[in-house]
Specification:
Length: about 350
């Protein structure tokens, strides 16, 4: 889960190592990989008088401002993505809680059938949130655990895992004489229809669709005490489903390769030019300067990379597991009042 800290503790934040950027081995490895450049130039400057007379102070000027702009823009954009991802989880929690509140307020009290259907909607909302997590994390699941804890029925699991749900008929050409001819471009296809199981990436949408079906049953069976309640609950389910689409977008969108490559190439060129432009003035001091310059840049790059994938497994990513536990706990507490009514 993301590491909590107190913003007032300046020095504690500065020197924190646990779950910070400096605790990542990849940052130190990248820093040390560039250090031989500065060491070699310092040795050359010290022992080669001809090299010591070169004028290299201005060689870095065209790149300094460009690196500063690109790095700051990337870090700001990455933080915006992280902040938006955290906001989506909060909105998902809020929508589930509001939908459950509406069910508790408007479902006919004391009616066992109505209460059971309302509980089914809550179950499907929680199931949908879990399936969102599995999708955005790229987790492969046979849904056995979801069934064992009661979030998924045996028939629903059978449909999602084993049942052939999609049948695509083969494409056939008919000539002028009425004889069926298989198109030459489709020769690799068999005459039998193509069958597929339910798409694993669409499982969360299935949960919300089932919740909408049950909500319509509550409406048709006159279990809502207020006529507009059906639309209110429907709006809540649709809102959670729309959040799924946004979470899917955030989880699957990364920087385009040309942009990511350009930012790193420019920064790499800049870090290689730093020792060239400063070695004559600093001598051996260029080594610690370049070490800290490399470390700072690779820290920034690593932090930005983590924030650009906010639904990952890093310690500072948004905590999907904690939010889903809250959704389950809070909605269950709300529904307990309806059951006891």
């Amino acid at each position: 889960m993301p590491v909590a800290y107190h913003p007032q503790n300046f020095w504690q934040i500065v020197f924190t190592v646990y779950h910070s950027g400096v605790s990542q081995p990849r940052v130190w490895l990248r820093t040390m990989m560039l250090l031989p450049v500065s060491i070699g130039l310092a040795v050359l400057n010290h022992y080669n008088d001809a090299f010591a007379g070169w004028e290299t102070a201005g060689i870095i000027m065209p790149f300094g401002f460009l690196v500063a702009v690109i790095t700051s823009f990337r870090l700001s954009d990455a933080y915006h993505k992280y902040e938006r991802a955290a906001g989506l989880l909060t909105a998902m929690h809020s929508s589930c809680r509001e939908t459950t509140s509406r069910l508790c307020a408007y479902v006919t009290p004391g009616n066992d059938e109505a209460i059971d259907l309302a509980l089914q909607i809550r179950r499907l909302l929680v199931l949908g949130c879990i399936l969102i997590k599995e999708f955005v994390r790229g987790e492969k699941s046979d849904l056995v655990e979801e069934q064992s804890v009661g979030l998924l029925t045996a028939s629903e699991r059978q449909l999602l895992v084993n049942t052939m749900c999609i049948v695509a008929p083969s494409i056939v050409d008919t000539d002028d004489d009425g004889a069926d001819q298989i198109d030459a471009r489709l020769s690799a296809m068999t005459a039998a229809p193509k069958k597929d199981r339910y798409p694993s990436k669409n499982r969360a949408a299935f949960a919300f669709q089932q919740a909408q079906l049950i909500n319509s049953q509550l409406h048709r069976r006159s279990h809502y005490t207020v006529p507009h309640t059906y639309m209110a609950v429907e709006a809540g389910i649709c809102h959670v489903a729309s959040i799924y689409e946004e979470v899917e977008h955030f989880g699957g969108s990364v920087l385009p390769l040309p942009y990511a490559q350009l930012t790193r190439l420019i920064a790499l060129l800049f870090l290689c030019l730093v020792p060239i432009s400063t070695v004559h003035g600093l001598g051996w001091g260029v080594i610690p300067l370049c070490f800290f310059a490399n470390l700072v840049y690779f820290l920034v790059d690593d932090v930005a990379s983590q924030m650009e994938v906010p639904f990952g497994h890093d310690a500072n990513d948004v905590d999907l597991e904690k939010m889903i536990r809250r959704i389950d706990k809070h909605t269950a507490a709300q529904m307990s009042l309806l059951v006891r009514a």
